[in-house]
């Protein structure tokens, strides 16, 4: 069966096509700047010349039709009937969705009811599903939620110490995100260790533009650093992560910023960018190497926050079998890995500098031979995980 995985943003659609019999990726690409005067279409397929076109793409419906046309033109699909299912990434599934679900009217309604919890992400995800259902009414569509893996977090870890009504009336609690990635790398680590995931305690660190840490006990998420929204926890490219909530009110009073302006500062002007002006980790390294003290500080704050969560989740789990780094930074940045794990030898976490400096192609073991806790860099593949869950949801796995 061929499964198309879609990640719909406000003005973009990213896609990957998988052949599930051998989990081969047949094609990938994206349509950007939808609704703008000049759109961009990029398609890459096995054994075909990459395609890059600039032209207007009116709306998501047109973008989807372009994607399907490209998949048929480059031979990845014989025709649209060759498509077994579409798996959609949906950011927020609230408490309603603990696994992937086949999309129907009731599911669409529930995802739209969750919009207040994820106003930036759920509307474009929902719009992508609507357009895909319109364009391919005969193809089964499955929604896979970023939050679902974290629905196993127990109440003492998902409740904030706020008045009860914040939870009962307004659904304020920790939901957690990046669940598909944490689940994928956890499974990959278990495969690599040759042990069942259900027997393992892991700390997984997804470090990309967004960043989150997850404590996994016996294969299930029991705590994660992102909270009601993806703003809490680790330092990110432009997001602050943990901050004293009173800073918010203090800065609004001190500067005259509105709540919306303050929210923008915390989401888009903070993190690495706030600390040193650069949100891309490679740029932060370049600036630090060129002697910019702010960039060095940004690196230190970034790694210190990770180290703090490693210690916290060690305490949560009691026993840790492995720590897994993933995401663009986690997979590629050996300096961040060594700085984050520095000084944790007493916890049984010891890196091997040579192994740590090697490139990560799939699974790279970076811990020293005598490290009690294994440390890995593992390339994530959220799209393949979405395709797998789509297949499981349709009962064909
Ligand atoms: P997203 O969260 O948007 O999926 P990625 O997982 O691709 O993003 O991560 C993007 C981050 O990874 C950026 O900060 C980028 O600088 C960083 N990154 C990518 N490659 C490297 C590398 N070789 N060394 C250090 N950082 C890297």
UniProtKB/TrEMBL annotation:
Keywords per UniProt: ATP-binding, Cytoplasm, Kinase, Magnesium, Metal-binding, Nucleotide-binding, Transferase
Residues reported to bind Mg(2+): 7, 382
EC category: transferase
EC number: 2.7.2.1
Top-rank taxon: Bacteria
Cofactor: Mg(2+); Mn(2+)
Pathway participation: Metabolic intermediate biosynthesis; acetyl-CoA biosynthesis; acetyl-CoA from acetate: step 1/2
Residues holding ATP: 14, 206-210, 280-282, 328-332
Classification via InterPro entries: Ac/propionate_kinase, Aliphatic_acid_kin_short-chain, Aliphatic_acid_kinase_CS, ATPase_NBD
Recorded catalytic activity of this chain's protein: acetate + ATP = acetyl phosphate + ADP
Record site: Transition state stabilizer: 178, 239
Binding site for substrate: 89
Cellular component terms per the entry's GO annotation: cytoplasm
Gene Ontology BP annotations: acetate metabolic process; acetyl-CoA biosynthetic process
Main location: cytoplasm
Cofactor note: Mg(2+). Can also accept Mn(2+).
Family: Belongs to the acetokinase family.
Function, as annotated: Catalyzes the formation of acetyl phosphate from acetate and ATP. Can also catalyze the reverse reaction.
Protein name, as recorded: Acetate kinase
Native species: Thioalbus denitrificans
Gene name of the encoded protein: ackA
